[in-house]
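New to this. Explain the following:
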Amino acid sequence: MNDNIKGKVVVITGASSGLGEATARLLSAEGAIVVLGARRVERLKALADELTAQGGQALATAADVTDREQVKNLVDAAVQKFGRIDVMINNAGLMPQAPLERLKIDEWDRMIDVNIKGVLYGIAAALPYMKQQKAGHIINVSSVAGHKVRPGATVYAATKHAVRALSEGLRQEVKPYHIRTTIISPGAVATELPNSVTDPDTAARINEFYEEVAIPADSFARAVAFAMSQPDDVDINEILFRPTRQEL
């Protein structure tokens, strides 16, 4: 699978756990150079040290995606250390679901900051380098909720629909620079994402659902590797996947 993966410099946000960690592990095993960003620096550095001890190349940099400068510093660090950025994976996300009537406005604001603005900041950091290189690949993480709206997930779904809209606009705009774009929309994948749900009724429902159907995070990592591994003239624009048992 490592065709077009080996030697690539890949920046991953939200890399300290879940989808980001699984992706870092798989891509490193396939020969990619991984630059890891997240808020939890100790976990991030432990992962980078582990991958390096296994013969890979990894760099850990603190990055809160709600802070534009931190995201820029993450990408700048990748270019300064390794000379380029080949792939930007805007993975960091939150899912604190609750019915709108419960007015969890602080959580709405946080989701917008992380799930939408965090993606935009990642694009803003990577795009100038990729334009200069006339090559690159931006992978944005949406969700099944970016395709379907369900009660209690309204704001989360809105942010993930926004990721798809941003990604499609980006796809059309970067054609002159030979930049590829991919949206990956997972269903229920076993990560810490449900832990961000603070509404008790919603949390109980989501946790029960995930315990019943969720699949491992390396399912997402394999989707990333599939999109990356295509020849440069093949642009996998969108991948939607679910657990086989997931109905919604």
